[in-house]
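hey so i finally got around to running the thing on that chain from the lab meeting. sorry it took forever, my laptop kept dying and i had to restart like 3 times. anyway pasting the input first so we r on the same page abt which one it is
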Amino acid sequence: MSSIRQQKVARLLQKEISQIFHLNGANWFPGTMVTVTVVRPSPDFSFAKVYLSVFGKMEPKECVDLISAHSKMVRGELGKRIGKQLRITPEVAFYVDDSLDYAEEIEKILKE
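ok and heres what got predicted. didnt touch it at all, straight out
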């Protein structure tokens, strides 16, 4: 169960990371749209799991690996943006959000 503060920080991180991807996305992954779907910060805000949906030319796993390679740059840019709101800029780990695939699988099973 997350606290209200964790939820607010999650929304802040989601917004800022989305903007970072919006600015750098054309260079990192051309022809691919990356969406930040969920951010789950730890209770002490030192770590955050970021779940991404990937649509376009690149495979989701390949895109997440590329973003993970740029994670230090993403964290640095994030620190510049949220430095006044948070004392610690969280370490970020990126994961593929497969909830849409999971929902489609369940829907397919229920139709049978």
